[in-house]
Amino acid sequence: MVTLMIIEAGLKNNKNILHYIFGAGSISELGSILARTSINKGRIAIYLIDQFFEANLGSLGQLPISGKDVIIYVDTKSEPTTHYVNGLMCSLMGRKEEPFAVVGIGGGTTLDVAKAISNLLTNGGHAEDYQGWDLVRIPGVYKVGIPTISGTGAEATRTCVMTHPPTGLKLGMNSDHTLYDQLILDPELTKTVPLEQYFYTGMDAYIHCVEALNGHYRNAVGDAYSGQVIKLCREVFLSDDIRSDENREKLMVASYLGGCAVATTYVGVLHPFSAGLSVVLGIHHGLANCIAMVAMSEFYPREVEEFWCMVQKQNIHIPRGVCKDLNRRQYDLLYESTIIHKKPLTNALGDGFESILTKDKIEKIFRSM
Length: 369
Ligand code: NAD
Ligand code: ZN
Hints:
Blueprint lengths: L18 E4 L7 H8 L6 E7 L19 E5 L7 H11 L6 E8 L1 H16 L8 E2 L9 E5 L13 E4 L4 E6 L7 E4 L9 H19 L6 H18 L7 H19 L6 H12 L3 H9 L7 H14 L13 H12 L2 H8 L3 H4 L2 H9 L2
The chain binds nicotinamide-adenine-dinucleotide and zinc ion.
The site of nicotinamide-adenine-dinucleotide has 34 residues, from helix 3, helix 4 and helix 8.
């Protein structure tokens, strides 16, 4: 029998997003939401917007941006680091006007950066001070999340993932305070996502739930969310047009429910390997997941088969051999940045995960990707 000492607490007292609006065109509600929230006129909103929209701001409709509001276009070329977030905080310091709201508009990267900024504005300090569990002391600035690509579930979770460059640790501010206060889920906004990016990020929702359903910390609520997510992902990724109006709507729901699912449990073997690819080789989360999925037959055989059906049906390119010819130092780093994820690995393999995932085995798995 497997004993689970490391994360024996398992399920805690779960908090969900309190308010969300769903539907095509719902981004037009942002103005009235912010108007209800701003108590003192004159205070400002801080917009963190995916850099894709810098040249296409009009495609977001009429945003209620006024005089002194701050707009920051978030760099999505690399995934968020603590340095990047700290740098943004420096640029916000010294302003006279106090922010009443932080609005994040974009993918997982932008939504996570907005969460981190909201927490830091009220808690002070540096992003790395809050990487871990329940370290954020007080609620952040009121925040609204508006996803523009579906899959990560970042809109629904209590974390915001960042890498801390000095240690290579990829970990978020896991806290109830990190949850968005309000979501606007508008499937019209995902229309412009390129096909392969749509697939890579969308697959994150499927993978979160595959891992949740195969873990030791399954629970009835998480299972119900996950089952529905898998069903929606099958409908979308085995269909002829994954970006039809109906499928963009379904994937947005799957992303949100997938976030709710992992929030009740943990991911599994794949995400630690994917994190290794991101930290050591700079490969983005969605693509890194798809590359890692290829090497997961031992752990998730049926799901890997189904994944290949989806890849083939949609004619998606999954790079192979990315870890074939690395140097010793890189393999060591890949090992370290994978094995560090004790909670998901315990969820997947039990307390003895280190005797299953030996250093040699981990290197072999990376080489087989
Ligand atoms: P992303 O936010 O990095 O965006 C991917 C690409 O899509 C970018 O080039 C972006 O500019 C572009 N894009 C976004 N919306 C677009 C649109 N409407 N039209 C055209 N292009 C658009 O990617 P992602 O996969 O959503 O997020 C990955 C990040 O999310 C990683 O940093 C990962 O660690 C994090 N993540 C967080 C959680 C969480 O619970 N907080 C969960 C999973 C992943
Ligand atoms: Zn993920």
